[in-house]
């Protein structure tokens, strides 16, 4: 029975507070006409409440033992589609959908990136994740490269902070409910995405000052002008400049670099370049 409740390889912890779960669902943007993907359905506690709130629930569970529990529980529930599989690998819908899930901590980073990078990302997402990662992704303590990379297209926020006693078994780390909302009005066009993300990676690369990181792209004089216009000091660290100002800096910079030079100078880098 103990193994059925928790598969340590999948880093599973389960929300079980009977009052808290409906409260979180009712406070979300979920409505009757929605299709909701639940990743990590577990024993179906959240699944059942979602099925009472939305038009269709696609409940994904990787653990075959828990999937058997789900099949027995929802075999007569018409608006619940059960899927045995890996939420990191299964195809995502092309039509509008939302995501709600108490996901395994082991896949949180990879899953968030998969949703954000999808050709058809969810319009709204609610995921239980570790607090330390959510704080960085949302730029709560300081601006992060991750936050900036997706800021023109998505709003990331923490909408609830859990107590460890809300879960079974009790986790060793604090967790929160992360909301990822697709912007109704994008701050940049889709055809600017690759250049913008390369610009952000360059801006954060190596943990140096903004003027040092962008020295191969923007002249010192122009960067100082942009600093006065936008409201920052070129010698500031990247993490001190709010994500919205990084978007303004990109817009102000791209006008002064011809396409050929821009494509040549901006090269994709890895997340490990965010040293701060």
TrEMBL record:
Limits of the Ribosomal RNA adenine methylase transferase N-terminal domain: 20-184
Gene Ontology MF term list: RNA binding; rRNA (adenine-N6,N6-)-dimethyltransferase activity
Top-level lineage group: Bacteria
Keyword annotations from UniProtKB, A to Z: Methyltransferase, RNA-binding, S-adenosyl-L-methionine, Transferase
Pfam families associated with the record: RrnaAD
Residue numbers binding S-adenosyl-L-methionine: 15, 40, 61, 86, 102
Family in the record: Belongs to the class I-like SAM-binding methyltransferase superfamily. rRNA adenine N(6)-methyltransferase family.
PANTHER family noted in UniProt: DIMETHYLADENOSINE TRANSFERASE, DIMETHYLADENOSINE TRANSFERASE-RELATED
Protein name: Ribosomal RNA adenine methylase transferase N-terminal domain-containing protein
């Amino acid at each position: 029975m103990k193994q059925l409740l928790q598969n340590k390889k999948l880093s599973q912890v389960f929300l079980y507070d009977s009052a808290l779960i409906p409260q979180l669902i009712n406070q979300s943007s979920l409505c009757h006409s929605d299709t909701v993907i639940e990743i990590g359905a577990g024993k179906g506690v959240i699944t059942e409440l979602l099925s009472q709130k939305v038009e269709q629930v696609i409940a994904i569970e990787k653990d075959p033992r828990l999937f058997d529990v789900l099949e027995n529980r929802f075999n007569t529930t018409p608006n619940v589609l059960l899927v045995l599989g890996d939420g990191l690998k299964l195809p995502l819908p092309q039509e509008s959908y939302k995501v709600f899930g108490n996901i395994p901590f082991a896949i949180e980073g990879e899953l968030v990136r998969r949703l954000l990078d999808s050709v058809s990302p969810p319009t709204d997402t609610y995921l239980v994740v570790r607090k330390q990662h959510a704080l960085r992704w949302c730029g709560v303590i300081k601006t992060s490269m991750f936050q900036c990379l997706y800021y023109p297209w998505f709003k990331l926020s923490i909408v609830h902070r859990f107590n460890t006693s809300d879960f079974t078994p009790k986790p060793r780390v604090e967790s929160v409910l992360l909301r990822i909302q697709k912007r109704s009005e994008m701050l940049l066009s889709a055809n600017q995405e690759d250049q913008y993300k390369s610009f952000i990676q360059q801006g954060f690369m190596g943990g140096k000052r903004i003027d040092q990181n962008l020295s191969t792209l923007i002249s010192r004089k122009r960067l100082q002008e942009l600093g006065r216009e936008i409201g920052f000091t070129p010698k500031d660290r990247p993490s001190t400049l709010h994500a919205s100002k990084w978007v303004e800096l990109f817009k102000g910079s791209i006008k002064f670099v011809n396409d050929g030079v821009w494509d040549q100078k901006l090269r994709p880098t890895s997340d490990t370049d965010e040293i701060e």
